[in-house]
Description:
With 200 residues, the chain is mainly α. Helix content is 67%, strand content 0%. It contains nine helices and no strands. It has helices at 17-32, 38-55, 68-82, 91-106, 110-117, 121-124, 127-158, 168-178, 186-199. The chain starts with 16 loop residues before the first helix and ends with a helix. Keywords: Iron, Metal-binding, Monooxygenase, Oxidoreductase. It comes from Armadillidium nasatum.
Amino acid sequence: MINSIIGSISFVNNVGLASQNLRRFTLTNLRNSGMGKSSMENIIRYELECFIEDLKKYCGKPVEIPWSLNIAIINTLWKIVADIRFDITDKKVQEFEKLITDMFIYAQHPLVLTFDQYPILPKIIPLSIQAKLGLKGLFDLMERVTKFLRDAIDSHQLTLDDENPRDYIDAFLIQMKANEKGLGSEKNFNFTCKSIILNL
Length: 200
């Protein structure tokens, strides 16, 4: 899907020692941050309660599933990745939710579907050509998602405690400092965060 274009590699299917180490590191630290543990259940339960509270505004009338459901999903994931929870009314997370939704819409673009079937293509077709073929909007969205991630990284760097990692971002920043096993790359980090957001 869109991962065929993000870095022209797939987080799950990419091969090689560096990518295997990155995958192992990511899965281990997501578990350490709560993924698959009872603490994750507590996070989900709280977000569900907030979502239900938001639904009460629509009692007695038909309504499409509100965007606040997407915010609840983002909050569940972002709590593990960045130890941050957004209020449903927060404009920043509303904008981010719109970015993610628009990226999934672009995932239906015929060229993206073609890239999904033939992942070698985005590696050999210049980005300028891809943009002219209709993917410029997707590239713009990816830049804005990257900025969102960059802001979170910058904030974590200011308060980073090497001895007490709070979340996945902290763990990756500490690993970047150590620069072991081929993990120490902000490009790897940005790609991994995008992959987590798009795949969960």
